[in-house]
Give the backbone structure.
Amino acid sequence: MEVILREDIEKLGGRGEVVKVAAGYARNFLLPKRLAVEATDSNRKIVEQERQAHLRKEAKQKGEAEDLSKLLGGISVTIAQKAGEADQLFGSVTSKDVADALAAKNFTIDRRKVHLDEPIKQLGEFKVPVRLHRDVTVEITVNVVREE
């Protein structure tokens, strides 16, 4: 069965593509969840219009993310934590702590956009990537200092 995808689906295709799938997969999964529509001429036109609108929206979001990345480029945040004698933190600094520190500087960043491979458990200075958009990532400096 041929369907037109309305969303990007991993290992199947991108938005607006016409793909051939098993009838059961289309009938039981793709169509009920509105991830795809049947490949008719009228549906092709509708999906193409949706795709153009999505591309415009995506370009706008990317532009906003690039503007924000220019502002965040030189930012460094300081986070105070309790630490032991060997500069080992008693807790850890997570992406939520970094997002809260950015919020204190009037940058509203979702914690899921702060990408820490693992929580910071040492005192020191760290470069932390913040993914503002699929194509826009900026690194901020996080200083972890001893709490008095």
Summary: The chain has three helices and eight strands. The mean pLDDT is 89. The first strand starts at residue 2 and ends at 5. Helices lie at 23-30, 41-72, 95-104.
